[in-house]
Design goal:
Layout lengths: L2 H32 L4 H26 L3 H26 L2 E2 L5 H19 L3 E2 L1 H22 L4 H11 L5 H33 L3 H13 L1 H12 L3 H25 L2 E2 L2 H5 L1 H17 L3 E2 L1 H20 L1
Protein backbone atom coordinates (compact mmCIF):
# COMPACT_ATOMS: atom_id res chain seq x y z
CA UNK A 1 0.00 0.00 0.00
CA UNK A 2 1.46 3.39 -1.00
CA UNK A 3 1.95 6.29 1.38
CA UNK A 4 -0.61 8.31 -0.62
CA UNK A 5 -3.18 5.60 -0.01
CA UNK A 6 -2.34 5.58 3.70
CA UNK A 7 -2.80 9.34 3.96
CA UNK A 8 -6.11 9.17 2.08
CA UNK A 9 -7.25 6.33 4.37
CA UNK A 10 -6.30 8.38 7.42
CA UNK A 11 -8.32 11.37 6.17
CA UNK A 12 -11.22 9.10 5.25
CA UNK A 13 -11.02 7.50 8.70
CA UNK A 14 -11.31 10.89 10.41
CA UNK A 15 -14.35 11.80 8.28
CA UNK A 16 -16.04 8.46 8.94
CA UNK A 17 -15.17 8.65 12.65
CA UNK A 18 -16.65 12.14 12.89
CA UNK A 19 -19.84 11.03 11.14
CA UNK A 20 -20.08 8.02 13.43
CA UNK A 21 -19.63 10.09 16.56
CA UNK A 22 -22.25 12.61 15.48
CA UNK A 23 -24.71 9.84 14.59
CA UNK A 24 -24.17 8.10 17.92
CA UNK A 25 -24.58 11.31 19.94
CA UNK A 26 -27.73 12.32 18.05
CA UNK A 27 -29.35 8.91 18.32
CA UNK A 28 -28.43 8.25 21.96
CA UNK A 29 -29.40 11.75 23.14
CA UNK A 30 -32.79 11.79 21.47
CA UNK A 31 -33.55 8.18 22.38
CA UNK A 32 -32.82 8.99 26.01
CA UNK A 33 -34.99 12.10 25.69
CA UNK A 34 -37.88 10.04 24.29
CA UNK A 35 -37.57 7.69 27.28
CA UNK A 36 -38.12 10.61 29.64
CA UNK A 37 -34.53 11.21 30.76
CA UNK A 38 -33.92 14.87 31.56
CA UNK A 39 -31.91 16.86 28.99
CA UNK A 40 -29.25 18.01 31.46
CA UNK A 41 -28.63 14.42 32.57
CA UNK A 42 -28.30 13.42 28.90
CA UNK A 43 -25.89 16.29 28.29
CA UNK A 44 -23.60 15.38 31.15
CA UNK A 45 -23.64 11.60 30.65
CA UNK A 46 -24.87 10.39 27.25
CA UNK A 47 -23.28 13.22 25.27
CA UNK A 48 -20.13 12.96 27.40
CA UNK A 49 -19.79 9.28 26.55
CA UNK A 50 -20.74 9.86 22.91
CA UNK A 51 -18.04 12.47 22.33
CA UNK A 52 -15.49 10.11 23.92
CA UNK A 53 -16.63 7.11 21.86
CA UNK A 54 -14.18 7.79 18.98
CA UNK A 55 -11.25 7.81 21.41
CA UNK A 56 -12.49 4.59 23.01
CA UNK A 57 -12.94 2.68 19.74
CA UNK A 58 -9.58 3.84 18.37
CA UNK A 59 -7.89 2.83 21.64
CA UNK A 60 -9.49 -0.62 21.70
CA UNK A 61 -8.36 -1.38 18.15
CA UNK A 62 -4.88 0.05 18.75
CA UNK A 63 -4.52 -1.91 22.01
CA UNK A 64 -5.27 -5.22 20.33
CA UNK A 65 -2.75 -4.34 17.62
CA UNK A 66 -0.13 -3.77 20.29
CA UNK A 67 0.17 -0.03 19.56
CA UNK A 68 0.23 1.31 23.10
CA UNK A 69 1.78 4.58 21.92
CA UNK A 70 -1.26 5.33 19.76
CA UNK A 71 -3.58 4.39 22.64
CA UNK A 72 -1.94 6.78 25.10
CA UNK A 73 -1.03 9.40 22.51
CA UNK A 74 -4.69 9.51 21.52
CA UNK A 75 -6.01 9.95 25.08
CA UNK A 76 -3.32 12.33 26.32
CA UNK A 77 -3.45 14.32 23.07
CA UNK A 78 -7.25 14.50 23.12
CA UNK A 79 -7.34 15.78 26.69
CA UNK A 80 -4.79 18.47 25.86
CA UNK A 81 -6.65 19.37 22.64
CA UNK A 82 -9.98 19.64 24.47
CA UNK A 83 -8.65 22.45 26.66
CA UNK A 84 -6.00 24.07 24.49
CA UNK A 85 -7.63 23.78 21.07
CA UNK A 86 -11.38 23.35 21.57
CA UNK A 87 -11.97 25.57 24.60
CA UNK A 88 -9.62 28.09 22.98
CA UNK A 89 -11.56 28.14 19.69
CA UNK A 90 -14.92 28.32 21.47
CA UNK A 91 -13.79 31.29 23.61
CA UNK A 92 -12.38 33.12 20.57
CA UNK A 93 -15.73 32.68 18.78
CA UNK A 94 -17.62 34.02 21.78
CA UNK A 95 -16.48 34.67 25.39
CA UNK A 96 -17.82 31.93 27.66
CA UNK A 97 -19.71 32.84 30.81
CA UNK A 98 -19.83 29.93 33.22
CA UNK A 99 -23.02 29.43 35.23
CA UNK A 100 -22.88 25.73 36.01
CA UNK A 101 -22.36 25.24 39.74
CA UNK A 102 -21.06 21.68 39.45
CA UNK A 103 -18.03 22.91 37.53
CA UNK A 104 -16.55 23.48 40.97
CA UNK A 105 -16.50 19.71 41.37
CA UNK A 106 -15.91 18.57 37.79
CA UNK A 107 -12.78 20.62 37.15
CA UNK A 108 -11.00 19.44 40.32
CA UNK A 109 -12.04 15.87 39.45
CA UNK A 110 -10.55 16.28 35.97
CA UNK A 111 -7.32 17.49 37.58
CA UNK A 112 -7.34 14.58 40.04
CA UNK A 113 -7.83 12.01 37.28
CA UNK A 114 -5.10 13.58 35.14
CA UNK A 115 -2.66 13.33 38.04
CA UNK A 116 -3.94 9.83 38.89
CA UNK A 117 -3.35 8.66 35.32
CA UNK A 118 0.23 9.94 35.56
CA UNK A 119 0.70 8.16 38.91
CA UNK A 120 -0.61 4.77 37.76
CA UNK A 121 1.50 4.99 34.59
CA UNK A 122 4.82 5.38 36.41
CA UNK A 123 5.32 1.60 36.46
CA UNK A 124 5.24 1.77 32.61
CA UNK A 125 2.08 -0.25 32.26
CA UNK A 126 -1.68 0.13 32.64
CA UNK A 127 -2.87 -3.26 33.79
CA UNK A 128 -6.27 -4.49 34.83
CA UNK A 129 -5.90 -3.18 38.39
CA UNK A 130 -5.11 0.34 37.17
CA UNK A 131 -7.88 0.05 34.60
CA UNK A 132 -10.40 -0.97 37.25
CA UNK A 133 -9.44 2.07 39.35
CA UNK A 134 -9.84 4.54 36.48
CA UNK A 135 -13.14 2.96 35.40
CA UNK A 136 -14.44 3.07 38.99
CA UNK A 137 -13.69 6.80 39.07
CA UNK A 138 -15.71 7.25 35.87
CA UNK A 139 -18.66 5.31 37.28
CA UNK A 140 -18.59 7.41 40.45
CA UNK A 141 -18.47 10.59 38.34
CA UNK A 142 -21.45 9.44 36.26
CA UNK A 143 -23.52 8.74 39.37
CA UNK A 144 -22.57 12.09 40.83
CA UNK A 145 -23.38 13.91 37.56
CA UNK A 146 -26.82 12.34 37.47
CA UNK A 147 -27.65 13.40 41.03
CA UNK A 148 -26.12 16.86 40.70
CA UNK A 149 -27.88 17.49 37.39
CA UNK A 150 -31.26 17.04 39.02
CA UNK A 151 -30.44 19.98 41.32
CA UNK A 152 -29.13 22.27 38.56
CA UNK A 153 -30.73 25.64 37.84
CA UNK A 154 -33.65 25.95 35.43
CA UNK A 155 -31.52 28.11 33.10
CA UNK A 156 -28.98 25.33 32.63
CA UNK A 157 -31.71 22.70 32.23
CA UNK A 158 -33.38 24.73 29.48
CA UNK A 159 -30.02 25.22 27.78
CA UNK A 160 -29.45 21.48 27.53
CA UNK A 161 -33.05 20.87 26.46
CA UNK A 162 -32.72 23.35 23.58
CA UNK A 163 -29.37 21.91 22.50
CA UNK A 164 -30.52 18.27 22.49
CA UNK A 165 -33.97 18.91 21.03
CA UNK A 166 -36.89 16.51 20.84
CA UNK A 167 -37.47 13.61 18.54
CA UNK A 168 -39.73 10.79 19.70
CA UNK A 169 -39.11 8.40 16.81
CA UNK A 170 -37.31 5.71 18.81
CA UNK A 171 -36.73 3.39 15.88
CA UNK A 172 -35.05 6.20 13.97
CA UNK A 173 -32.77 6.98 16.91
CA UNK A 174 -31.84 3.31 17.32
CA UNK A 175 -30.88 3.33 13.63
CA UNK A 176 -28.69 6.42 14.24
CA UNK A 177 -26.99 4.63 17.15
CA UNK A 178 -26.34 1.46 15.12
CA UNK A 179 -25.03 3.43 12.16
CA UNK A 180 -22.84 5.52 14.46
CA UNK A 181 -21.27 2.47 16.09
CA UNK A 182 -20.58 0.87 12.70
CA UNK A 183 -19.01 4.04 11.34
CA UNK A 184 -16.90 4.41 14.48
CA UNK A 185 -15.48 0.92 14.06
CA UNK A 186 -14.75 1.43 10.36
CA UNK A 187 -13.25 4.90 10.85
CA UNK A 188 -11.14 3.77 13.81
CA UNK A 189 -9.77 0.82 11.84
CA UNK A 190 -8.81 3.13 8.95
CA UNK A 191 -7.11 5.57 11.32
CA UNK A 192 -5.14 3.02 13.33
CA UNK A 193 -3.92 1.01 10.32
CA UNK A 194 -2.95 4.08 8.29
CA UNK A 195 -1.34 5.83 11.29
CA UNK A 196 0.90 2.83 12.00
CA UNK A 197 1.86 2.64 8.32
CA UNK A 198 2.58 6.39 8.05
CA UNK A 199 4.70 6.30 11.21
CA UNK A 200 6.70 3.38 9.82
CA UNK A 201 7.29 4.94 6.38
CA UNK A 202 8.38 8.37 7.69
CA UNK A 203 10.19 7.08 10.76
CA UNK A 204 7.87 9.08 13.04
CA UNK A 205 7.09 7.69 16.47
CA UNK A 206 3.56 6.43 17.04
CA UNK A 207 3.38 8.78 20.03
CA UNK A 208 3.73 11.81 17.74
CA UNK A 209 1.18 10.40 15.28
CA UNK A 210 -1.19 9.67 18.14
CA UNK A 211 -0.93 13.14 19.67
CA UNK A 212 -0.54 15.36 16.61
CA UNK A 213 -2.97 13.61 14.27
CA UNK A 214 -5.10 10.80 15.75
CA UNK A 215 -6.11 12.76 18.86
CA UNK A 216 -7.28 15.75 16.82
CA UNK A 217 -9.34 13.45 14.59
CA UNK A 218 -11.01 11.75 17.55
CA UNK A 219 -11.68 15.16 19.16
CA UNK A 220 -13.77 16.39 16.22
CA UNK A 221 -17.13 15.54 17.88
CA UNK A 222 -16.16 17.69 20.87
CA UNK A 223 -15.03 20.48 18.53
CA UNK A 224 -18.26 20.39 16.53
CA UNK A 225 -20.38 20.33 19.69
CA UNK A 226 -18.53 23.29 21.22
CA UNK A 227 -18.60 25.41 18.05
CA UNK A 228 -22.36 24.93 17.70
CA UNK A 229 -22.84 25.68 21.41
CA UNK A 230 -20.67 28.81 21.17
CA UNK A 231 -22.69 30.14 18.23
CA UNK A 232 -25.89 29.47 20.18
CA UNK A 233 -24.47 31.08 23.37
CA UNK A 234 -24.94 27.80 25.26
CA UNK A 235 -21.98 28.26 27.58
CA UNK A 236 -22.57 25.40 30.01
CA UNK A 237 -22.68 22.88 27.19
CA UNK A 238 -19.19 23.97 26.10
CA UNK A 239 -17.68 23.62 29.57
CA UNK A 240 -19.62 20.46 30.44
CA UNK A 241 -18.63 18.85 27.13
CA UNK A 242 -14.92 19.64 27.48
CA UNK A 243 -14.48 18.74 31.15
CA UNK A 244 -16.81 15.74 30.92
CA UNK A 245 -15.03 14.46 27.82
CA UNK A 246 -11.63 14.63 29.54
CA UNK A 247 -13.00 12.67 32.49
CA UNK A 248 -14.68 10.13 30.18
CA UNK A 249 -11.49 9.76 28.12
CA UNK A 250 -9.48 8.71 31.16
CA UNK A 251 -12.28 6.46 32.37
CA UNK A 252 -12.57 4.86 28.95
CA UNK A 253 -8.80 4.30 28.98
CA UNK A 254 -9.41 2.41 32.21
CA UNK A 255 -11.94 0.20 30.43
CA UNK A 256 -9.50 -0.37 27.55
CA UNK A 257 -6.70 -1.45 29.90
CA UNK A 258 -9.16 -3.61 31.84
CA UNK A 259 -9.89 -5.46 28.60
CA UNK A 260 -6.35 -5.34 27.19
CA UNK A 261 -3.42 -4.09 29.34
CA UNK A 262 -1.45 -1.25 27.71
CA UNK A 263 2.29 -0.60 27.93
CA UNK A 264 3.44 2.96 28.69
CA UNK A 265 6.29 4.52 26.74
CA UNK A 266 8.64 6.14 29.31
CA UNK A 267 9.11 9.13 26.99
CA UNK A 268 5.47 10.08 27.59
CA UNK A 269 6.14 10.52 31.31
CA UNK A 270 8.82 13.11 30.61
CA UNK A 271 6.82 15.58 28.51
CA UNK A 272 3.33 14.69 27.23
CA UNK A 273 1.89 13.54 30.57
CA UNK A 274 3.12 16.65 32.46
CA UNK A 275 1.66 18.87 29.70
CA UNK A 276 -1.70 17.10 30.07
CA UNK A 277 -1.62 17.75 33.83
CA UNK A 278 -0.55 21.36 33.21
CA UNK A 279 -3.50 22.03 30.89
CA UNK A 280 -5.88 20.43 33.39
CA UNK A 281 -4.51 22.65 36.17
CA UNK A 282 -4.66 25.71 33.90
CA UNK A 283 -8.35 25.10 33.24
CA UNK A 284 -9.23 25.89 36.85
CA UNK A 285 -8.13 29.56 36.97
CA UNK A 286 -9.20 30.14 33.36
CA UNK A 287 -12.74 28.87 34.01
CA UNK A 288 -13.24 30.04 37.58
CA UNK A 289 -11.70 33.54 37.62
CA UNK A 290 -14.62 35.86 37.07
CA UNK A 291 -16.63 32.82 35.94
CA UNK A 292 -15.74 33.75 32.37
CA UNK A 293 -13.34 32.60 29.63
CA UNK A 294 -12.48 35.68 27.56
CA UNK A 295 -11.27 35.85 23.96
CA UNK A 296 -7.80 36.77 25.22
CA UNK A 297 -7.74 33.65 27.41
CA UNK A 298 -8.99 31.57 24.49
CA UNK A 299 -6.22 32.93 22.29
CA UNK A 300 -3.70 32.20 25.06
CA UNK A 301 -4.87 28.57 25.21
CA UNK A 302 -4.57 28.25 21.42
CA UNK A 303 -1.03 29.63 21.47
CA UNK A 304 -0.03 27.20 24.22
CA UNK A 305 -1.53 24.29 22.30
CA UNK A 306 0.25 25.37 19.10
CA UNK A 307 3.55 25.56 21.00
CA UNK A 308 2.97 22.06 22.37
CA UNK A 309 2.27 20.57 18.92
CA UNK A 310 5.32 22.34 17.46
CA UNK A 311 7.48 20.97 20.28
CA UNK A 312 6.50 17.32 19.78
CA UNK A 313 6.86 17.55 15.99
CA UNK A 314 10.22 19.32 15.98
CA UNK A 315 11.88 17.29 18.73
Amino acid sequence: MSITTDILLFIAGIIVLFAGGESLIRGASRLARSLGIRPIVIGLTVVGFGTSAPEFVVCIIAAFKGSGDIVLGNIVGSNIANIGLILGIAAVIRPITIYMKIIKVEVPLMIFLSIALYAVSVNLGLGRMEGAFLLACLIAFTIYSYRAALRESQLVKEEYKEFIGDNTSRLKQVAFIAAGLLLLIIGARFIVDSAISIATVFGISEVVIGIAAVSIGTSLPELATCIVAALRKENDIIVGNIVGSNIFNIGMLGLVSLIKPVGVNPELLGFEYPVMVLFALLALPVMMTGRRVSRAEGLFLLLLYSAFIAAIILT
